[in-house]
Amino acid sequence: MTLSNPDHRPGLLRRGLSLNLKQLGAGTLLTLGASLLGLSTAYAEGALEKEDLHLGFIKLTDMAPLAIAYERGYFEDEGLFVTLEAQANWKVLLDRVISGELDGAHMLAGQPIGATIGFGTEAHIITAFSMDLNGNAITVSNDVWSQMKPHVPHEDGLPVHPISASALSPVVDAFRDRGENFRMGMVFPVSTHNYELRYWLAAGGIHPGYYAPHRGDTSGQLNADVLLSVTPPPQMPSTMEAGTIHGYCVGEPWNQQAVFMGIGVPVVTNEQIWKNNPEKVFGVSSEWAERHPNTHMALVKALIRAAHWLDADDNANRQEAARILSMPQYVGADVEVIANSMTGTFEYEKGDLRSEPDFNVFFRHHATYPFYSDAIWFLTQMRRWGQIPEAKPDSWYMETAQRVYRPDIYAQAAQALIAEGKMAASDFPDFATEDGIRDTPSEFIDGVPYDARRPNAYLESFEIGLKGDESI
User: Fold this and answer.
1) Assuming Cys at both sites, which of 28, 195, 369, 386 could form a disulfide with 381, CB separation 3.0 to 4.6 Å?
2) Model's pTM, two decimal places?
3) Sign of the dihedral defined by the CA atoms of residues 236, 240, 243, 244, in that order
4) Is the dihedral of CA 354, 355, 360, 366 positive or negative?
């Protein structure tokens, strides 16, 4: 049976068909056959604990695996009928996953970790799927850029990238001399954006401030040269244009939006701060995962397929992905703005368009695998800036990572896709030998080497930040 869908919304069409068939009863449904429905064997056997799911996201391009899994019917292939709903902010999103209003969500990589260790709202959240690598940038206002630019090396009339925060230091000093605070936005206290912005500032000799939760101070501004505060991603450009903040770190399309609006200049991408860093994850509560193991695995299978499609054939599908993401129910930004970074380029100053093929990575470099070493890096930064106020032994970092990141569930989903002929074993890490530590060295803007097996030694290598038994 062939069905046409002129609206290019297979999820809606197939869901309508499936609901009608379900009304016929289980016996008739099985007689019709799983192949007719395009459902997995698990669904035909009734193995899913829950079929109708409500998933949350924030309006950013890195929610793409969710949109693609929906639009291309990968959720329905697994017998899942999914509703995707944009959330107001990261706190609301997390709270709704904890309360059970959402079955799962697109999350900041640090959110499951922060919740599990009790920084902010305490809850045990896990992730078995990393949604992407890279995808962020740091943007400053035109006025700040005009003051930074004389301190930035140029070649053939163009700034040399990556741009160090040392070029921002004279601007911050000038603000201080005038008795003014230099303010920058990031999206959430446990966001990758917060840690990347802090890393970039500190690498350039600018102190981003400490947290002191044991003293009731969660501002993150103690001893700060630059005051960082939370701003929701879609509001970043307008907040900077109003002068409330002088720059920000955010995901796309909100850096390119500043360029299109003519109000700001991205100065560094997070790929340049930490090459191939994890950005978002798909998170569920541990309780939900325990109650719905088959449903959870089906979700991960669908998301793996979506991520693979996004990176297939050297990003050949990215223009179509940008069109889908431009829909109001997803990101809702102009397709040209989204495509500026999604299709392998990135614009800095107006007209300075550069090739950035890995600005957004969804599948290659094993982007979807939940590596323990990624979780440990976030924990080191939580300790560095005081969100973890006391020293922890090296063993604690690995034990905590293993509580939150679940490569065992990922491997089960991947092996099912291989068995079904939908993916190849070569698409994935070698699960027989994988230990959860990336086998390629991490590359950071300051050249400091990262060893996930020795987190305390890593912390000792930084001039700015807590280390050893230090506390605030």
Assistant:
1) 195
2) 0.90
3) positive
4) negative
The amino acid occupying position 209 is: G
As a whole number of angstroms, the distance between CA 275 and CA 280 comes to 15
Evaluate whether 10-132+278-345+358-427 and 136-276 have a shared fold. yes
Burial of 193 (0-12, 13-18, 19+ CB in 10 A): buried
Tokens of 251: 């995901």
Would you state the CATH architecture of domain 136-276?
Answer: 3-Layer(aba) Sandwich (3.40)
Angle at Cα 331 formed by Cα 325 and Cα 336, nearest 5°? 60
Phi, psi of 325 (to 5 degrees): -65, -25
User: Domain residue spans in the chain?
Assistant: 10-132+278-345+358-427, 136-276
- pLDDT range class, residue 128, cuts 50, 70, 90: very high
Task: Compute the distance between CA of residue 69 and CA of residue 57 in angstroms, rounded to an integer.
Answer: 13
pLDDT tens, 133-146?
A: 999 999 999 999 99
What integer pLDDT is reported at residue 264 of this predicted model?
98
Asked if 438 contacts 278 with a C-beta cutoff of 8 angstroms, the reply is no
Q: Any alpha helices (H) in 135-178, and if so which ranges?
A: 142-148, 169-177
- Asked if residue 76 lies in contact with residue 113, where contact means CB atoms within 8 angstroms, the answer is no
Distances (CA, A) of 461 to 222, 228, 349, 456: 21, 24, 34, 9
| Helix 10-22 and helix 64-71, axial crossing angle in degrees, nearest 10 | 60
DSSP state of 358: T
**Is the dihedral angle over the CA atoms 422, 425, 429, 431 positive or is it negative?**
positive
Q: What is the pLDDT of residue 118?
A: 94
Q: What are the φ/ψ torsions at residue 109 (nearest 5 degrees)?
A: -60, -30
CATH class of the domain comprising 10-132+278-345+358-427: alpha beta
Distance CA 203, CA 205 (A): 6
Q: Is the preceding peptide bond at 253 cis, omega within 30 degrees of 0?
A: yes
> Tokens representing 409?
């569930």
